Amino acid sequence: MPAFPKAAHEAVRNETLRANLRHATHTIRDKRARAVAELDDWAALREAGKRIKDRTLRQLDTHLLQLEEAVTAAGGTVHWAADAAEANRIVTGLVRATGESEVVKVKSMATQEIGLNEHLEAEGIAAYETDLAELIVQLGEDRPSHILVPAIHRNRGEIRDIFRSEMGKWGRPAPDDLTDSPAELAEAARLHLREKFLRAKVGISGANFMVAETGTLVVVESEGNGRMCLTLPETLISVVGIEKVVPTWRDLEVFLQTLPRSSTAERMNPYTSMWTGTTDGDGPGTFHLVLLDNGRTDALADEVGRQALRCIRCSACLNVCPVYERAGGHAYGSVYPGPIGAILTPQLRGTASEVDASLPYASSLCGACYEVCPVAIDIPEVLVHLREKVADQGGKGHRLEKAAVRAAGWVLDHPGVLAAGERIASKTRRLHPKKLPGPGAGAWTESRDLPEMPAEPFRDWWRKNRT
Amino acid sequence: MTDSRARILSRIRTAVADAPEAVPVARDYRTSHTPDDPARVLDLLHENLADYRAHVHRSTPDGLAGLVARLLAERGARSVVVPPGLPGEWLAATEAVRRFDEPRLTPYELDGTDAVVTGCAVAIAETGTIVLDGGTGQGRRALTLVPDLHLCVVRAPEQVVASVPLALPRLDPARPLTWISGPSATSDIELDRVEGVHGPRTLEVILLTGGAATPTPGGRAPSAG
Ligand code: SF4
């Protein structure tokens, strides 16, 4: 895996990728603004979401224990996995115990994070991704490039080619006369996957939320593939990061308002499934919940960085990020791309590797990600904090920053953009206006002037420079 | 396994040991964004359902059987799944073959069925959402998932609320819940919206007004075998 600078450098030269990304991010961005504007209490919802998550994280042990008790009482079984290897081992064992050698999967970042599909494959278990975009990615032997629309880097012609050449190897082939119309492509996927849904005995999912007081898991989706995987199999295994817990049933009233609008810019996504343990005569008779740490407790221990664990994976920050728009998701070298990836990945994995050390520099610190975040994660603050940490490790921060910035190509064309973005961020984000605090910060700040705050408000600047 | 449990919990405790106490959660957001007027709320539900490409109709109890029959016929539905407890009169006028879920239909049998008719637990106006809880007349989750046409009857005003915060207290988390906002859809291919990827391609919603004597929702569905 190349470090961000190299990967980004390659990505910005790919014109198709850049055009697709630009179209996608701008479309979602504009729709999101309209969906959010419908709720005049957005600021209060955002603040409530932030506080609910902060309180949960403060007493995470209590909430997880309560969750475990509630899930168990409702007929489920709870497992704890300290790292990816353990989670993979647990899931493999559970699938083995069913005697099955194939599983259907709901799109889940947690299972991507631990490399579950690859692990299952090595163990002789076929894992079928069922989200349309994930299917495109899987058939194309590719990696996802966006949290919400993982195949956003592919256009319809490429998708048709992948379906035509690959579907037959995995199951029902695509029709010979398949065109590149989205409706036909979706129909081909529907038929291809339906045969898998109907015969599946084991489903694997993640979850968007887990409610501690009731033991309820929540999966938010659009296509119905999630419902298929959660409902038709006999065994359901959900792998969920420990930070996904919320204390009460009522807390969902906040996130079910903010997540869809921030994510797909809809008032509500087409399907939300909620289940509590098992229910006689409805859905899987066996339910396993695998609670995943895998670096989350490290992030939790970082007083500045822990706010990244508030993330509800809406992907709004990706769609407004000028660096993501040009570099694309692959450049981040992790399942979490964009601004959230730049702060989450180095915390989950540490910054020992070149790619992870470069991630905190994959940003212009313009602050747009913070503005859209429905749980108010101060991404620029965490980025600067992580830069200090990387710099402390051996002073390679300065070099990484230059490389990251240069790699994003566009900066060369618009040197003013970066400067202006940072200038505004430094004021609005209450970053230190002249010099960053703490030892090691110098390695980052030395290289730049942090000039006066421009009179121009952020939004005006954004409109002028970014459209 | 037990080891990891203890280890994760102790890592959490160490991680937050010095963290400041969290600020209390203020619930000063709105309970509803809509004036408290049942007619307005119903109109908003209608509008938002339609905006997400559900087909919305209105009916009184007298016209319901005829409307159900017409909608099924218009979509060419020759067979229809009947969830346990569905009021018999809803299907009184249709010629579609009725398939009862007792004993439980297999996924393949459901796949070979054209339509399903259900009631719901709650409908949410601001988001254009109907919520199913497996209660009387709704059946288990697979019934509203596999057939290609879902026809859902919402009793107004008693099953209609304005907002998400008003809906949650009316739902029982112990039940499997499905929130449906329009038909299955994807925007994964160049962000072009396509309906009916894996769930029902068509969602017909009938807003039923002026009724009283029909059975109320809320009881558990009879055992489906
Ligand atoms: S950091 Fe905020 S904006 Fe980005 S994905 Fe997470 S919740 Fe959404």
From TrEMBL, chain A:
Domain 4Fe-4S ferredoxin-type: 308-377
Keyword Metal-binding among record annotations: yes
BP terms from Gene Ontology: lactate metabolic process
Keywords from the UniProt entry: 4Fe-4S, Electron transport, Iron, Iron-sulfur, Metal-binding, Repeat, Transport
Gene3D superfamilies assigned to the protein according to its UniProt record, in alphabetical order: Alpha-helical ferredoxin, NagB/RpiA/CoA transferase-like
Annotated region described as Disordered, given as residue ranges: 429-451
A GO molecular function held by the record: 4 iron, 4 sulfur cluster binding
Recorded superkingdom: Bacteria
Metal-binding keyword on record: yes
Domain LUD: 66-289
UniProt xrefs under PROSITE patterns: 4FE4S_FER_1
Domain Lactate utilization protein B C-terminal intervals: 387-465
A Pfam cross-reference name: LUD_dom
PANTHER family: LACTATE UTILIZATION PROTEIN B
Protein name: Lactate utilization protein B
Organism of provenance: Streptomyces sp. R44
TrEMBL record, chain B:
One protein family per Pfam: LUD_dom
Residues annotated as domain LUD: 46-208
InterPro entries in the record: FTHF_cligase-like_sf, LUD_dom, NagB/RpiA_transferase-like
Superkingdom of this protein's organism: Bacteria
Protein name: Lactate utilization protein C
